[in-house]
Write a structure and sequence with these properties.
It is globular, with a radius of gyration of 15 Å. It is an all-beta fold.
């Protein structure tokens, strides 16, 4: 729903039915954009190896009108640094990341989504980001 905060975490289960401890919680807030447009953003790590990882963010139009563009923001907690990104244009200052749509995927019809991906580095701990938000324009 627009203008709603959500929080989620993951518990993995192996083939024998054993469960892992819960992952760190990720919080994000959807926005309404004020014009019938809104979006949500869901962050996840898709692959990780020592000192590097690959992630993706799914941006979905949660509004009633097509978006003209979108912006996703989050804060990395442990010094992670994006090295490359596809399907979006990013800026990063310290842990704060801002991603704007690419020229070809900003227009999303209601219910439609776009997927952006990236590779990044980490040292110590690869904690999940906080404050994942999406704003539609």
């Amino acid at each position: 729903a627009p203008s709603t905060q959500y929080q989620f975490y993951v518990i993995a289960r192996d083939a024998a039915g054993n469960s892992s401890p819960p992952s760190g919680a990720v919080t994000f807030t959807t926005t309404s954009g004020g014009t019938g447009g809104g979006c949500s953003a869901a962050y996840k790590v898709t692959n990780s190896w020592q000192g590097n990882f690959q992630g993706e963010v799914t941006v979905q139009n949660t509004g009633t009108k097509a978006t003209a563009g979108w912006t996703v923001k989050w804060t990395f907690p442990n010094g992670q640094k994006i090295t490359t990104m596809w399907n979006g244009t990013y800026t990063q200052s310290g842990g704060d990341v801002t991603v704007k749509n690419a020229g070809y995927n900003g227009t999303l019809q209601p219910g439609a989504s776009a997927l952006l991906g990236f590779q990044a580095t980490w040292t110590g701990t690869n904690g999940l980001p906080t404050g994942v938000t999406c704003t539609a324009s």
